[in-house]
């Protein structure tokens, strides 16, 4: 069975590639990183190491790579024959890969009448649906109709912490033992792919919101507050009592919104939060706050991990959030010369001020309660300096 996976990075190799191998797929990774593609074609295997006491090693075999910059024709050929297509490239890259996927589908549906499921494994709500929209922009209406019959775009949520890392072996990747891959069954065309590790759910919304507004809200709180306080890693930040206080408060606020919206059991949700806090403190992982905070414009978006839970908390409780507002205030301070979005955000703040940025980037109404709450925390932020 052939799998095509876009993005041979941390999640691609360390999570999706590993499960595809265990499910007996040959995986063709598509990437723009020539070095990684060359290594995949030369080595034809790589190791995934579990970041835990025993450093358990999983050897992932039956892999190859195609450089989509230099060999688009081979990507089209691979898509024609694939039994599943997955992505882990980052939300901003989905529109970039859409045209090539459209070319592959255009050729595929002419001769291959087997269904194909395309699963975007990105930290975002509705990733596969957005990818479908972008792909369809490149297809004529008759081609779209053929795809409607055969090509599924089920939405998914993926959860596994895979930090940036430099290993002697370029392909080796160290990952936390925990993982969760949820796929919405309703979007599947044909049989559900038999991949151990995927949990199929009828309605993804409660699960992806629970994941994004707990794991990602919490992780970004640690990253932004920690970065503001001068910490380099998530582990350093988790050692700070103020970070602990803010993350607990932020997850209690997002938790309230989730519990009231989706009727999660209060005790079970607290256990979920505790598990996540322990994952952030995994001593076998070294994760930079700059990685976890990367792309602050995306993360300050209206539907993302900071603004959405803060707005939802206000909707269900009628109160203004304190700890999510502190986290948003810290996100607005996230300067990092290596991060194009961080640079752009700081420029926007300099030119227009925080209030305007919260309107344009976060979609908040001028004079809204949340803007007021964040501005109060921006004024107080100096209190957290170490
Ligand atoms: N690393 C993590 O802990 C987690 C990441 N995610 C999500 O997984 C996705 C990928 O994240 P990571 O693996 O951490 O990032 P990464 O940066 O390690 O991997 C992304 C890969 O995509 C490749 N890429 C960039 N442009 C491309 C293009 N046009 N065509 C093909 N490949 C291209 C890059 O070269 C890179 O190899 C993101 O949406 C992220 O939010 C989700 C859960 C956890
Ligand atoms: O990948 P993003 O959306 O930039 O988020 C930062 C990272 O921190 C996490 O929230 C937890 O590891 C990952 O899911 C993610 O890679």
TrEMBL record:
EC number per UniProt: 1.1.1.17
Catalytic reaction equation(s): D-mannitol 1-phosphate + NAD(+) = beta-D-fructose 6-phosphate + NADH + H(+)
Tree of life domain: Bacteria
SUPFAM superfamilies: 6-phosphogluconate dehydrogenase C-terminal domain-like, NAD(P)-binding Rossmann-fold domains
Enzyme class, first EC level, given as a word: oxidoreductase
A GO molecular function held by the record: mannitol-1-phosphate 5-dehydrogenase activity
Database matches in Gene3D superfamilies: N-(1-d-carboxylethyl)-l-norvaline Dehydrogenase, domain 2, NAD(P)-binding Rossmann-like Domain
Keywords carried by this UniProt record: NAD, Oxidoreductase
Residues reported in the UniProt entry to bind NAD(+): 3-14
Pfam family, one: Mannitol_dh_C
Keyword NAD: yes
Residues in Mannitol dehydrogenase N-terminal domain copies: 1-197
Domain Mannitol dehydrogenase C-terminal, chain residue ranges per copy: 203-381
Family: Belongs to the mannitol dehydrogenase family.
Full protein name: Mannitol-1-phosphate 5-dehydrogenase
Species annotation: Virgibacillus natechei
